[in-house]
Amino acid sequence: MTEVQITGLTKSFNHKMVLKQLDFTLTNGVVGLLGRNGAGKTTLMRIIATLLTKTSGQIVINGRTDLKVRQIRTMIGYLPQNFQFYRNMRVQDVLIYLGLLSEIGPRELKPRIEKLLTRLNLTKHRRYRMKELSGGLKQRVGIAQALLNDPQILIVDEPTVGLDPEERDNFRHLIGNLGQKRIVIFSTHIVEDIAEISDQLLILEKGTLLFKGPTRQFAPHQKELEPKYLAAIRGGDDESF
């Protein structure tokens, strides 16, 4: 069981507070991170992934506060919102290249790639160039690269944006399965994505938490949050931070 405890987390850019004293604990399962443009979702995920430094606060992973950045990165897989790679590079070569950059030895890397290609239904696309893939297949390659190090924490930022309904449904199912053995932080502004697969829910608005807890406990609070939040995010887009 993996556990992430966040206490008093804040982040400022140019004296503007983007995250304000966040406190929550995450455990295995899919964590739905819901928020509209500018809410702070991507900032929060980048801090957890060590791609941004926090202004203040504490992040404790499995009870440890002494982990170095390099150690944390071996525990985390990250799929950014716009996963892009060299357009002419073939799928299997993308995974080999990124695996070597992650310092996975060639002997270990090859079976991992084969396993992921099979698991993500990419085997028949392994020699396709990135520019030849649909949006859904590109996201599957993105998930594959994020899983190369078998992470305890998987972070996916707005993965269903731009996908057609069938691809979105397939991707939600995939994310749900991945959450059985790890923490999966799944950021979106699409309420339906969260409702179907998340075990835990965090709702961010202007850098503060409006709700945190099991998704099943959200229903009693929905009416109270609807006027100030849910109606607005249905037309939301990606945040600027």
Describe, in plain words, how this protein is organized in 3D.
With 241 residues, the chain is α/β, with parallel strands linked by helices. The chain has a domain of 68 residues. It contains eight helices and nine strands. A six-stranded mixed beta sheet has the order 5-6-7-3-8-9, sandwiched between helices. A three-stranded antiparallel beta sheet has the order 2-1-4, with helices on one face. Strand 8 and strand 9 form a beta hairpin.
What profile does the largest beta sheet have? 6 strands, mixed
Shape from CA axes?
Answer: globular
Q: Helix and strand succession?
A: EEEHEHEHHHEHEHEEH
- In percent terms, what proportion of residues is strand? 25-35%
Which characteristics define this entry?
alpha/beta, disordered C terminus, 8 helices, 241 residues, six-stranded mixed sheet, three-stranded antiparallel sheet, 36% helix
Briefly say what this structure is.
With 241 residues, the chain is of the alpha/beta class. 36% of the residues lie in helices and 26% in strands. The protein starts with a strand and ends in an 8-residue tail after the last helix.
Please write out the topology.
Blueprint: E1 3-13, E2 16-27, E3 29-34, H1 41-48, E4 56-61, H2 69-73, E5 76-79, H3 91-101, H4 106-119, H5 135-146, E6 153-157, H6 165-178, E7 183-188, H7 191-197, E8 200-205, E9 208-214, H8 219-233
Parallel strand pairs: 3-7, 3-8, 5-6, 6-7
Antiparallel strand pairs: 1-2, 1-4, 8-9
Helix pairs in contact: 3-4
